[in-house]
Each structure stands twice: as C-alpha cells, then as structure tokens.
Amino acid sequence: MDHKKLNAVIYAILAALFYAINIPCSKLLLNNVSPTFMAAFLYMGAGIGVGIMYIFHAKKEPRKERLGQEDIPYTLAMVGLDIIAPILLMIGVKLGSAANASLLGNFEIVATTLIAFGLFREKVSARLCGAISLITLASVILSFSGEGSFSFSLGSVFVLGATLCWGLENNCTRKISGKSTYEIVTIKGIGSGTGAFIVAMILGESIPGFSYMVLIMILGFVAYGLSIFTYIRAQKTLGAAKTSAYYAIAPFIGVLMSAVFLRERFTIMFIIALIIMILGTVLIVRDTLIHSHKHAHTHLITHTHDGSTHTHTIEHSHDHIHVINEGKHGHTHSAEELETAIGHRGY
Fold first, then answer.
1. Torsion over CA of 30, 251, 337 and 128, rounded to 10 degrees?
2. Given CB 3.0 to 4.6 Å as the disulfide criterion, which of 98, 116, 190, 191 pairs with 47?
C-alpha cells in the first residue's frame, strides 16, 4: 500500500472513530442536559464548525456545485427530518444503553434501502437483502433483550424512529448530493440545530450551562463535522465504496467504547444480536466491494458542459444503491454519480 492510500485508509478509520464517540459521549452529557437541547447543540457545533471550514474552501468550489432554487424542497425536507431524528436518538440514548443505541442505529441501513426501493425504485442485490434481514433480526433481538437493555421500552422505539427519519433523510439528501458537501452540512447543522433549539424552548426545557454548550458543540463538530471531512478526504483516494466499507466499523467502535468507558454490561441476547449484526455488516461490505470492483472495469466518458470539461466513469448497468452504516452514512451511487459523499448517520 503506497503512502497516499495509507493516508486515505487512516482518514476513513478516523471518520468512523469520530462518529463512534457520539453516542457514548452523549450518554454521559445527557445526565446534565435535556435530549432536545443536546440534539440542538450537537448539530449547531457541526454546522458552525464546517461553516468555518467552508469559508476557506468556498473560493475553490465551482459555482455550479452550490445549491439552487430547484434544490429547496429536498433541502427543507432534509433539515426538517434532521430536527426530528437527533431528538429521538438522544431520548432513546437517555432511556437505554449506549451500546444498544449504537447497534440499533444500524437499522438505518434497512430504512434507507427500503425507502430507496419503494419510493425511488433503486435496485437491491440479493446479498444486500440478506444483510437487511440479518440487521432486522438483530434489531428485534436488541429490542426484546431483557434486563439491562431496552426490553422493547420507549428507548428502542425512539432509536428506531430516529433511524426511520434518517433513512428518509438519506434519500432526500441523495437528490442534492451532487452539490457542495460543505454547504449541505453547514445548512443541515445550523438549520436543524436552530429548529431543535426552538423545539426545546417550546417544551420549556432548561438551557444547559455555558460549559456544557461548549462541550456539546465540540462533540458535534468532531462526531459530525470532522467525521464528514475525513470521510471526504478518504473518498478522494479510495472511492465511495471502499471508504464506506472502512466506515462500517463505526457502530462496533461505539459498542467497545460503551463497554470500556461507560462500564455497560452485555447480556447474552445482546451478544447474539452483536454477532448477527456483524454478519449483516460483512455482507454489506462484500456487496459494496464487489460493486467497487465492477466500477474499476467501466468506461471513461469526457464531455464539456458550461465551459468545463468533465470526465465520468460509467458502466453498462442501471442505477443501484449501496447503503453502508452511515449514518451516519448511507451512500448511494448511480451511473451518473459514482462518487457521492453525502449520507452520514444523521448527516
């Protein structure tokens, strides 16, 4: 492995690590902060942090990559869903264990794929169908896993509700994924954070102290902002599919951190669900890497548009979807867009 690819792999692993700290750290902070304000400041931290990065990047970005009037409906839907989803997730994390929430978050893969199949007629491979079945089974086990976890309490309902919102949000974001990643994340963060802040005020929740605000915003910038930044850096060298494969370790890092730092104990049912979830993730990674290999044997087509020359890699097959635990990142690829960077678990 050459130095450039090694750096890209490190970036991909860092992206997974940065996102994985979200739930365990949030679990600790939720002892002193309400779930809605927690969600608000997490997203504000990401939006403001990436927005500052965007200031230095904007001059290098082509104007055609910026969001336009035709993108408004999907942008509004994206922001609205990103107001609801993190609030549901934080409530679920507060009510249950961080380890369970990390694994249940993988149900976003199922939600994203089924919505893409049902509403957008995306093709789903047999291998991905098998992975979806395993992840669904593991999620059911986690929801009924007895004492010490969700036991099909409101916690599991809230986490699964968050994954459904993010599944729909991933498909909305797909429609604008060819535009500026920095701009999309900045709008997501500031827009959704402001929306959640307003909801918290309406609910009459107590505003956290300044020190907690700062800690949460730093966590949001790292878990969402830096995670996306390092993911994009990795993708430039590895491509979308291989980067997604490395990123699939994120939920398992979250489980490990929950055990080490939060001293959470795992039940037998949790361990069974964990094994099933790992098998499902392996199937997804294999499905992704197989398609990635196919991409390496495609055609290069160069054309000129709006005074700029573009080179696209396309293949003879129709559109297809790869969804890899995003969430924060569900990633989609089509014959027109093989290198999309949006869809990170909640981003």
1. -130
2. 190
Amino acid at 246: Y
* Dist CA 26 CA 271 (whole Å): 23
Q: Which residues pair with 193 in a beta bridge?
A: none
Distances (CA, A) of 320 to 4, 84, 327: 29, 28, 19
Domain boundaries, the chain: 3-333
* pLDDT for the residue numbered 152: 60
For the four alpha carbons of 169, 342, 49 and 74, in that order, the dihedral sign comes to negative
Contact 109, 117 (CB under 8 A): no
Structure tokens at 172: 């909305």
CA-to-CA dists, residue 245 to 132, 202, 323, 338, angstroms: 16, 41, 10, 15
d(CA 333, CA 335): 7
**pLDDT tens figures, 13-34:** 999 999 999 999 999 999 999 9
Contact status, residue 92 vs residue 159, Cβ threshold 8 Å: yes
Q: Are the C-beta atoms of residues 299 and 338 closer than 8 Å to each other?
A: no
pLDDT tens track for 87-98: 999 999 999 899
Euclidean distance between CA atoms 314 and 102, whole angstroms: 35
Rounded CA gap, 48 and 217, in Å?
Answer: 9
Which bin fits 258, alpha (ψ -120 to 50), beta or left (φ > 0)?
Answer: alpha
- The pTM of this model reads 0.79
CA-to-CA distance for 127 and 57, rounded, in angstroms? 39
The first and second tokens of residue 327, run together, are 């969430």
Q: At a CB cut-off of 8 Å and minimum separation 6, what does 268 contact? A: none
Angle between helices 268-295 and 240-247 (to 10 degrees): 170
